[in-house]
Write a structure and sequence with these properties.
Distance between the termini: 8 Å
Number of helices: 2
Number of domains: 1
Structural class: alpha+beta
Strand content: 35-45%
Number of strands: 5
Radius of gyration: 16 Å
Strand order of the largest sheet: 1-2-3-5-4
CATH architecture: 2-Layer Sandwich
């Protein structure tokens, strides 16, 4: 018996995102996309949460899984990088709306929040959206 649903949720998210036609050109990864990250990527990061024993010897699990969306654009147009980052995020959001169980991996998953980071150099702009996916499960 699994002690956590986190690996199953990450695998199901990756499979579901890879199957979305709008993300064909986006690198999708179970973990950090190293050693060859692309200019557009979405990947599963850290998870934080808790588990507790419930009635009838069931273990409840609640956690937030970070899903990171990153877009790098040449030039000075920060808005274009932000807009593409949110377009990729919309695919994750729509996937979770269509299947709140992430392929049966959890009882309930939804977006709990996000944070947008913007990074600049002389020649490029990067938007990084860190999305918190809240999950609840019974083990």
């Amino acid at each position: 018996m699994a002690t956590s649903t986190i690996p199953a949720v990450k695998a199901a998210l990756v499979a579901g995102l890879e199957a979305r036609p709008a993300l064909n050109s986006v690198q999708v990864s179970y973990g950090p996309p190293l050693p060859n990250p692309s200019r557009e990527m979405i990947w599963c990061g850290i998870a934080t949460g808790q588990q507790d024993w419930q009635a009838m010897n069931l273990k409840g699990e609640q956690y937030e899984l970070e899903v990171i969306v990153s877009v790098i654009r040449e030039g000075q147009d920060m808005q274009a990088a932000d807009e593409r980052c949110f377009a990729i995020y919309a695919e994750l959001e729509n996937m979770l709306r269509a299947d709140r169980t992430v392929g049966g991996a959890v009882a309930l998953a939804s977006v709990a929040g996000f944070e947008l980071g913007e990074y600049v150099t002389d020649s490029q702009r990067e938007s990084t959206l860190t999305v918190q996916v809240a999950c609840e499960a019974w083990i």
